[in-house]
């Protein structure tokens, strides 16, 4: 086997499977605490093309958990920072960026038939539901991240069908909304940990503090790596090389 930057991955997945990854296009919606690690792992695993979708810029409060957040990247569009990082990892990777929020009124900008897989790492229920609906319509594989905020135990994440989830309030809301769309199954990563009550909630103005979830460096990153791992395994196992 000729040595290259993906040689160690090929030892586990196989050469044919690496060819499959090299010819795959994955869309990652949301390049934050979870999505940034998804992008990192996909690029390092040899996925040949990525579409990155996020409207935000890197902010000071991102520094505690987001892999693309550095003092040198503050104020820069997250999708452009992630693209530059991907190209530095693999100069041959194809990366397209979309600096926008994914919502029902922007959904038509994205042709899901071009994607081999979709990763949902966004925060809004409305957007997450639309992603599931659009992927279902086109038969595009999708995996969705449920709530990773207000959690402290990264060992509590599981991969499951949405119908089998427990505890997670976001998963509960997703089930309700997707049933209205006639969708009863969705592959998700979720946590069985009860949301942690903010320590600041007992201080003044607790209502405002609760509106922003607490997060750490070691919880959303684990969720992102689990998501990426599922994408890699599914792609390598389920597609013929072009």
Identify the notable features of this structure and list them briefly:
Rossmann fold; 242 residues; 36% helix; seven-stranded mixed β-sheet; alpha/beta; single chain
Description:
The protein is built from 8 helices and 7 strands; from the N terminus they run ααβαβαββαββαβαα. The chain is of the alpha/beta class and 242 residues long. It has one domain: Rossmann fold (3-Layer(aba) Sandwich). β2, α4 (78-89) and β3 form a beta-alpha-beta unit. The longest helix has 19 residues, at 220-238.
Structural class, by secondary structure, is alpha/beta
Kindly report how far apart the N and C termini lie. 21 Å
Alpha carbon gyration radius: 18 Å
The CATH architecture name reads: 3-Layer(aba) Sandwich
The top level CATH class name: Alpha Beta
Report the portion of residues in β strands.
Answer: 5-15%
**What is the count of β-strands?**
7
Strand order of the largest sheet: 3-2-1-4-5-7-6
Mean pLDDT: 93
CATH homologous superfamily?
NAD(P)-binding Rossmann-like Domain
What helical percentage do the residues reach?
A: 25-40%
Shape summary? globular
Q: Regions with pLDDT < 50 over 5+ consecutive residues? A: 206-210
Number of domains: 1
How many H/I helical runs?
Answer: 8
Order of helices and strands: HHEHEHEEHEEHEHH
Largest sheet: 7 strands, mixed
Any idea of the CATH topology?
Rossmann fold
């Amino acid at each position: 086997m000729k040595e290259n930057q993906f040689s160690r991955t090929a030892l586990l997945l196989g050469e044919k499977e690496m060819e499959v990854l090299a010819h795959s296009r994955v869309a990652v919606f949301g390049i934050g605490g979870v999505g940034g690690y998804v992008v990192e792992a996909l690029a390092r695993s040899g996925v040949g093309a990525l579409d990155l979708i996020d409207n935000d810029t890197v902010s000071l409060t991102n520094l505690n958990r987001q892999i693309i957040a550095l003092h040198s990247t503050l104020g820069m569009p997250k999708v452009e920072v992630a693209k530059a990082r991907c190209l530095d990892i693999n100069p041959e990777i194809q990366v397209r960026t979309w600096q926008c929020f994914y919502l029902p009124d922007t959904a038509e900008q994205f042709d899901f038939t071009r994607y081999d897989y979709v990763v949902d790492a966004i925060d809004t229920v409305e957007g997450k539901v639309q992603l599931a609906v659009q992927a279902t319509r086109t038969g595009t594989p999708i995996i969705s991240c449920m709530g990773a905020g207000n959690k402290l135990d990264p060992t509590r994440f599981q991969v499951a069908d949405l119908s089998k989830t427990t505890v997670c309030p976001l998963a509960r809301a997703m089930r309700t909304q997707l049933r209205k769309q006639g969708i009863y199954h969705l592959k998700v990563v979720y946590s069985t940990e009860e949301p942690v009550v903010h320590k600041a909630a007992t201080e003044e103005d607790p209502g405002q503090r609760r509106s922003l979830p607490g997060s750490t460096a070691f919880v959303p990153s684990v969720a992102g790596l689990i998501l990426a791992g599922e994408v890699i395994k599914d792609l390598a196992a389920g597609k013929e090389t072009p």
